[in-house]
Structure formats: structure tokens, C-alpha cells
């Protein structure tokens, strides 16, 4: 389960809507599993079908989270024309990084589609998003 | 010569859990070989079989992404700091 304050969830969805038709991306930092803050990242790809964390920005964010003794709770990004479900590309990349949760937003319609997943050894498991 | 190399959590299995290790090299390629001599297997996580920097990692020398410097040929000197991070992408 991914537990998020409503304000964080609203911020993530707003970010996705703002960057549409490009995919948005970002990080949710946490402490002992509790979300602490949202980092809206720049999508270096500026693409409707992919995202890459801009490398210099990522170094800064990684350090900030590490220095605060926080953890990389979730990576979030949007899909602009498909469902809010990890793609094969997402699953591929999940093998190489450290996020506990993958939060997906779809901006394919006016309806808010937000879903959360864990991806372990390439296996995707959906989990509930609990809003506090 | 001594260069501090910061290792991300996902690669600390190679360094016995250490988040920073010392290494030496005149270039990033040389440094990675040196790292691998003491932390066997880490080179394969950083460099492809074809000898290029893996796209799943970012390496920074003094906080600059080496892809903007000389990639694996980036020169290094005593006191430089090297940071390895997992790259993050998806689609």
C-alpha cells in the first residue's frame, strides 16, 4: 500500500496535467514509509511516450534525500495516451533503481487515473493508494 | 592518488554495504578497473560488454555528468570526487 497525503496526490496529478502532452516525472521522498515531500522533476526527454530524469537535477535531489536521511519512497510519472499501468519500459528500468513504489498517472482523459505498484524482479503488483 | 567514489544503495552489495570507497585511476575507465579489482563484479554494472558506459547508470565527476565530459575517458586527478547513481527513466 502507498499512503499519501491528499495534497501530495493532488500535486502529482496537477503536475501530470500541466506537462501533458508530455510525460511528467518526479520523486516522492519518505521516512520510514511515510511520505515526506514531493520533488517535481524535469523530463529530459520532453516526450509523450517516455521520460528520463535530467541527470544534474537527479544528483541534487538524490543528495537532498540522502542528506535528510530520507528514502526514495516512490517514483511517479504519467502516461499520456495509455493506462496508468507500468509499461515494459518501466519494468525494464525498475530493475536498475531503488524506488519502493511506482506511482502512475494517466492523462488520457479528464478522469483522474492514479494507480500504484511495486515492481520486484520484473513482477508488477498493484497496490492500493491510501489517501490521508 | 586517492579518489572518493560514492556508491548508490543498489550497488552497495559490491562494497560490503559501504556508501563510499576509495579508488584510483587517471581516467574514469581506469578507476572502474581499480574499483573492480577490490569489489569484483561492479564493473559489469557500470560498463557494457562493448565497453561503453551503461545507460542505466549516471556517473558524475565533481558533480558533472561524465556524459558531458569525456565519458569513460574523463581524466581524473587526486582529490576528485566521483558519484555513481542509478539513472531513472521509463515510458
Structural features, described:
The complex is a heterodimer of chains A (132) and B (91). In chain A, helix 3 (88-94) links the parallel strand 5 (71-79) and strand 6 (101-106). Chain A contains three helices and nine strands. By secondary structure, chain A is an alpha/beta fold. Chain B is an alpha+beta fold and 91 residues long. Chain B has a single domain, classed as Ubiquitin-like (UB roll) (Roll), CATH 3.10.20.30. Chain B has two helices and six strands, in the order E-E-H-H-E-E-E-E. The N and C termini of chain B lie far apart (42 Å). Chain A binds chain B through residues 23, 25, 45, 47, 49-53, 55-56, 58-59, 62, 75, 77, 86-87, 89-90, 93, 96-98, and chain B through 8-10, 56-58, 60, 63-65, 67, 83, 85-91.
Biggest interface: chains and residue counts? A-B, 24 and 19 residues
Gyration radius over CA of chain A: 13 Å
What overall form of chain B do the CA principal axes indicate?
A: globular
Q: Based on DSSP secondary structure assignment, what is the total number of beta strands of chain B?
A: 6
Task: State the end-to-end CA separation of chain B.
Answer: 42 Å
Q: Taking strands numbered 1, 2, ... along the chain, how are they ordered across the largest sheet of chain A?
A: 3-2-5-6-7-8
Amino acid at each position: 500500500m502507498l499512503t499519501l497525503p491528499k495534497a501530495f496526490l493532488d500535486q502529482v496529478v496537477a503536475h501530470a496535467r500541466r506537462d501533458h502532452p508530455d510525460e511528467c516525472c518526479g520523486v516522492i521522498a519518505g521516512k520510514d514509509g511515510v511520505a515526506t515531500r514531493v520533488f517535481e522533476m524535469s523530463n529530459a526527454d520532453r516526450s509523450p511516450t517516455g521520460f528520463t530524469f535530467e541527470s544534474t537535477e537527479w544528483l541534487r535531489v538524490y543528495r537532498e534525500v540522502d542528506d535528510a536521511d530520507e528514502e526514495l519512497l516512490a517514483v511517479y510519472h504519467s502516461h499520456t495516451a495509455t493506462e496508468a499501468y507500468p509499461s515494459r519500459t518501466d519494468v525494464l528500468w525498475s530493475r536498475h533503481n531503488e524506488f519502493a513504489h511506482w506511482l502512475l498517472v494517466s492523462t488520457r482523459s479528464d478522469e483522474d487515473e492514479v494507480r500504484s505498484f511495486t515492481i520486484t524482479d520484473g513482477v508488477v503488483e498493484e497496490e492500493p493508494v491510501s489517501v490521508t | 592518488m586517492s579518489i572518493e567514489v560514492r556508491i548508490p544503495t543498489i550497488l552497495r552489495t559490491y562494497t560490503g554495504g559501504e556508501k563510499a570507497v576509495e579508488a584510483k585511476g587517471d581516467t574514469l575507465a581506469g578507476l572502474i578497473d581499480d574499483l573492480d579489482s577490490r569489489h569484483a563484479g561492479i564493473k559489469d554494472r557500470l560498463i557494457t560488454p562493448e565497453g561503453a558506459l551503461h545507460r542505466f547508470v549516471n556517473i558524475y565527476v565533481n558533480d558533472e555528468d561524465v556524459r558531458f565530459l569525456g565519458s569513460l575517458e574523463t581524466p581524473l586527478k587526486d582529490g576528485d570526487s566521483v558519484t555513481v547513481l542509478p539513472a531513472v527513466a521509463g515510458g
